[in-house]
Design goal:
The complex is a heterodimer. Chain A has a 3-stranded antiparallel β-sheet. By secondary structure, chain A is α+β, with helices and mostly antiparallel strands. The radius of gyration of chain A is 22 Å and the shape is globular. Helix content of chain A is about 45%, strand content about 10%. By secondary structure, chain B is of the alpha/beta class. Helix content of chain B is about 20%, strand content about 30%. Chain B has a 5-stranded mixed β-sheet with strand order 1-2-7-6-3. The longest helix of chain B has 13 residues. The termini of chain B are far apart. Classes of the chains: A alpha+beta, B alpha/beta. Chains A and B meet through helix 8, strand 6, strand 7 and strand 8 of A and strand 3 and helix 3 of B.
């Protein structure tokens, strides 16, 4: 086994005359810091984490089996429920995998709206992640409410466009379900113009805060080699210094046309993971501005067949979701249902390194490390 | 993104097959680990997706032209199998994907674990073990991932039927309940 794959071992210090033992704690599934129903079996020596085992499956509903028994389009609303913060990007990944199997051209306006929706989703995800992260650090409530105030504005936009705030179900194979209502683009532009002021304020409040610096810097350092080997994707990978963003690499949709930078960290600690997300929000706003300038009136639905029934083939579509690489692997066998439907969940794969990051640290740091990984249990357990 | 070519892989490992329809390299189980290590050395450093696919035994109708020119339809039985699929990319060269498949039988399914090569297989192979019942040799921590340990069966197999009394739990009834009321049984 290479060095990258070996988990660090911890030696228990035995003191003579003292009866020392390990304390086993089952953290979760109702612990507030686990962001849902996630459990960690932790072994502690005093405050130090000696062993940590993540336990999954509390929210398992076999999403994949459900999708294999219904038509392709019927599982579109179910993808909303995977990562319920980012239903728009989930929709896109699934639509992308399906569009690879048939010949369909997505209209220009739909492509632009897709980018706008995806970047708004990224803002929603990162802004709430940062709020929750500060929450985990002990600043209960206030920063999270600041973040949720901004998130609310974006959810209002989603509601006006798709009719739902979180379970949007907005994408279709070959385009979008409906065009945005009149005046929506103006409202969106107003939000994009106002957002940097909020970000600056937030950054001023948090990024140089002494408590945040001392609690996150040097905590949960993820090395570049381990990050690549463990298949870490998204902001977490980039925080470890790997410049790998599918918007740049795959250039899916029309991302090739936009000018934006990919922020990445140097140390790979919790602070870098937090900062990469803060910086990514500025880049999302850049993309949003360009997309809002370039969008023109037109149809939003291509000439996709009404009954989606691809020939026997396989396809793997992946996009850069806010949490990492979200992939859909589909096998068609000529029937209206997929023969095999698989979701590649970024949250689950990013949890591979949780044990490595936590061992040897303090139990309070385990909470921050989990917060900085950014998981949603709807996607981890599926 | 440029594609990862499968031709050098097939040159190096002549026993591996190329499945044109699926666009995948089918590698014999005995060679999978060796091939994975070779690929890692060639810069394929990122294993994105690991999953299983279950194929039941089925009858395939095939048209065969006889020597005298008549066309006959023959029914053949295709044995059931399980494919374990790996989607590989190269992060340093920004190429991909290369699809790798290990093929095994449905009964006593067993393939080689690629977790020692790509750590990202750790949880995903556990999931395949859990939902498809495929044994990964060389996986250091092969336990159920999503279902609980006492669970029987593998739900993602195509012939899985869930039990009728799925959520049945013994609760005090009748005789036991009477005893309980008298305070003889402490539940």
């Amino acid at each position: 086994m290479s060095t990258a794959t070996a988990a660090p071992n911890y030696e228990l210090i035995q003191q003579e005359g003292l009866d020392t033992g390990l304390l086993e704690i089952s953290m979760g599934p109702h612990h507030p810091s686990t962001h849902g129903v996630f459990r960690m079996d932790v072994k502690l020596d005093g405050e130090t984490v000696v062993d940590l085992r993540p336990v999954f499956g509390y929210l398992h509903r076999n999403h994949e089996k459900l999708a294999e028994n219904m038509s392709y389009l019927s599982s579109m609303p179910f993808t909303d429920r995977l990562d319920y913060f980012n239903s728009m990007t989930n929709n896109w990944a699934y639509a992308l995998a399906c569009e690879q199997m048939i010949e369909v051209e997505v209209p220009e306006r739909a492509e632009h709206l897709r980018v706008i929706m995806a970047e708004l989703t990224r803002l929603v995800n990162h802004v709430s992640l940062v709020g929750f992260f500060i929450n985990d650090l002990g600043a209960l409530g206030t920063p999270l409410m600041y973040a949720f105030r901004e998130r609310e504005k974006i959810l209002d936009l989603f509601e006006k466009a798709s009719g739902a705030r979180m379970m949007c179900n907005y994408f279709r194979f070959g385009g979008l379900r409906n065009d945005v209502p009149e005046g929506w683009l103006g409202e969106c532009r107003e939000l994009v113009e106002r957002f940097p002021a909020f970000l600056d304020e937030y950054e001023q409040l948090l990024c140089e805060n002494e408590i945040i610096l001392s609690r996150t810097q040097g905590v949960g350092v993820l090395s570049r080699e381990l990050a690549i080997s463990a298949g870490i994707t998204g902001p977490m990978l980039r925080a470890s210094g790997v410049n790998y963003d599918l918007r740049k690499v795959d250039k899916y949709g029309i991302y090739g046309r936009f000018k934006f930078r990919v922020p990445y960290g140097e140390e790979g600690d919790c602070y870098d993971r937090f900062m990469v997300r803060m910086l990514e929000m500025y880049e999302s706003l850049e993309i949003l501005e360009q997309a809002l300038d370039a969008i023109e009136p037109g149809p939003v639905m291509g000439n996709a067949p009404r009954v989606f029934k691809p020939k026997a083939q396989e396809s793997y579509g992946r996009i850069e979701g806010p949490k990492g690489e979200l992939g859909f692997y589909l096998i068609a066998d000529g029937k209206p249902q997929p023969y095999r439907y698989r979701v590649r969940p970024p949250s689950l794969v990013n949890l591979t390194v949780l044990r490595d990051l936590c061992i040897g640290g303090k139990i309070a740091d385990a909470v921050i490390i989990l917060g900085s990984i950014d998981i949603v249990l709807g996607e981890v357990d599926r | 993104m440029s594609e990862l070519s499968h031709e050098p892989v097939l040159e190096k490992f002549p026993e591996a097959e190329w499945d044109e329809a699926a666009g995948a390299v089918i590698v014999p189980v005995a060679q999978a680990r060796e091939m994975a290590e070779w690929l890692l050395g060639k810069g394929v450093d990122y294993c994105s997706n690991v999953t299983g696919v279950d194929y039941l035994e089925r009858e395939v109708k095939e048209k065969v032209t006889q020597e005298d020119g008549t066309v006959e339809t023959i029914t053949k039985t295709e044995p059931g199998r399980i494919d374990v699929v790996y989607h590989l990319y190269s992060m340093q060269n920004k190429t991909g994907p290369l699809v790798l498949k290990q093929r095994t039988t449905r009964g006593g399914a067993e393939v080689a674990s690629l977790m020692p090569v790509w750590r990202s297989c750790e949880l995903q192979e556990r999931e395949v073990f859990d939902l498809f019942g495929v044994n990964f040799t060389g996986h250091p921590d092969l336990r159920r991932l999503l279902m609980w340990d006492e669970f029987e069966g593998h739900p993602m197999r195509k012939d899985y039927v869930e039990p009728f009394d799925y959520e049945w739990e013994p609760t005090p009834h009748d005789e036991i309940f009477e005893k309980h009321k008298k305070g003889k049984v402490i539940v």
